[in-house]
Amino acid sequence: MRTHAEPCTSAAEPFSRVMFAAVALVTARLRRLATAFRHRYDTAILMRFDDRMLADIGLTRSDVREAFGEPVWRDPTELLVDRVARRRPARVKGRLAPSIVPEVGHARAIGHPRRI
Questions:
Q1: Does the model's pTM come out above 0.90?
Q2: Domain residues of the chain, as ranges?
Q3: Tens digits of per-residue pLDDT, 102-111?
């Protein structure tokens, strides 16, 4: 004999899946927006750098201004990372970057050598 509870649980299951998916989507968008705002705040520090300091990291003042010209909900660091990547020359594979980490014996103190 069927009870009244069986149809309710089977009808509620698809609804709960839809609600879970909607909540997950909204949560993901809110996290992405929070990250964009946090990166925008961090990128504002670059505006205080002089042109020489910006050139050291591969940026120009116009790059930073253009990153802030993007809509507020976009992450400005995506544009800046793209600009730096386009300006850097292609690295030779297999060459190791000079390390600033002191070596202890034959092993490095922290991590492994970086390949560039």
A1: no
A2: 16-87
A3: 555 555 444 4
